[in-house]
What does this fold into?
Amino acid sequence: MNLYEVLSKYTKRDSYRCAIFQDEGKGELDTERDVAVFELLKNVSNIGAKITLKDISFGPAIEWEGKRSFGPQDISESDYMTLKSLDMDQIPDYIRCRLADLLWVEQKYYPAAKVAAATYLELFKETFSEERWVRSIQLLYRAVCISLQINCQTICEETRQLICKYLKRADEEGNDSLSISFIEILVEQKLSDDDLALPILDKMISKTAVPIQRIERAYQLKLKCLEWKKSGSDNIKSVNKAFAQRYETESERHNASTFPDISIMIDLLRKAVILYRNNGESEEAQRVQRRITELQGKLPKMLSSIVNGYDVSKLHQYLVDCFDGLSFAEGVILIAQFTVFRKKDDVKNALLQKLHDYPLQLLSSKRFMNEKGQTVLQLHPLDMKNPDGDTKLFNAHLHRELYDMEVIDGNLILLRALEILRNNCAFSIEDLDFLIKDNAMIPKGRERIFQSALYMALQGDYYEAVHILAPQVENLFRNLAEELGALTATFEDDGTSQAKVLSSVFELPELIDAYDNDILFIFEGLLNERAGANIRNEVAHGLLEEPFACSGVCIYFICAVLKLLIFTSPGCNEVYRASDRLKVIKVPQEDISPVPVKNYK
It folds into this structure.
């Protein structure tokens, strides 16, 4: 038998977009070439395809741990020449649509485009049903998309008429989800039939006991229809205002006394605020925002604290032994030695390993709230296949990963080390002269304020210390950049100048080229990143609360400043050279890791 006869006999449709090839068919083929083509068509039919309203992307159907199934990258130019030479009319339609679309998308082979569009349309007619339409409607997406790309008016018009026919039937049967899918094609692919679509959308919008997601989509499509009709800005604003009011109505249907319901209400009202604000209704936007603030204030009271108890007695004893017999200056240097400056690459590797070992932790968005219940950070999930593809998002995850490490360091080690130092040594502000005097890192004229802030911190007055250290450390890095020849101010056309924001200072090429990038990354997260500690901004806006200033990450920040200054302190160098104890930190003789305590209260 020839190739086409075997394809008809030994293949069958598994679904609308793939085929099952029976290998015994190869034994019926007349030539070795036909066997090779049979195998090639089998691979092509099993290539994965991601179809949307506007596009399709081909790739391996399966990818795992660096391995993958057959993909477009495995098709050679000679393979493409072979595929182009086939008689499309004799190939079963469920193979033909995938083959023709691949030739069009990957090779821009124009003769295959019309074949693909027509085949997709015929397959849709064969496979569509009102009960099982979700997957088969993607065939319609491709038929419309390709016909528009090649400007095939015949298929476009046939498709439009077919959609209108099915849309009327779906509307009569009350199948809103299917109706929306058909209207999306009409609108998104500019085949809009407003006289039909708008009344159906209005009917959906008027319903009450329906999911808000369906109402949202109906409003969005209605607005696109109105834009398509060029119905005027006043009419569009009126619809947007009604859309915002609907969000308010849907919000009040929830119970304002449970955490999940309040979270949903806040999300709905946020969308209403944006709609009001974007359509010139500032007073309405402020009214809804006050309602959001009221709801947010209820959230912290509803959160149940999760208290984890740990036995840190061995760790504490180890720290006590390390500080035993040390002078005050030696103790300060020891605290700096316990403060870990992690490399950015190590944080990245830890994050990627977590993504590999615990993917569910990083596959959903995370929302972080402050004490007032206000969302201060929305951390969206990473792409599993290309986690660092979105550089800004990936850096936010890196800063959050480092933040979590700093919290642990601050709470478990550094806070205890500071307490032990205070218990072991009586000291005055002058005892910090060894650290501050002639320190090249401290900007000229700022020695006294650094000394005062660090003295407060070592005394346990963390709240006051952080308020002073945050802006002073910001100035320290500005001064460092200036010393390296960077411009840290902007110059305006009217002759005025203004200091660059801190994020821009950390991005100055002179600073990046000359200074340790890992340290810059650490302090960027501590001072200026919303996904990190963001201490500088909290202080600058007067938002820093005392409990946060005494938290693990702020303790880490204080100790990180100590370590930063010790690098450039002649006095610290002298203390270190004279001390035998500091040159070798005691190695624990047993595991001193904190042990979880069961039934902790």
Remarks:
- The chain has a mean pLDDT of 89.
- Residues 273 and 438 are 55 Å apart (CA to CA).
- Residues 391-424 form the longest helix (34 residues).
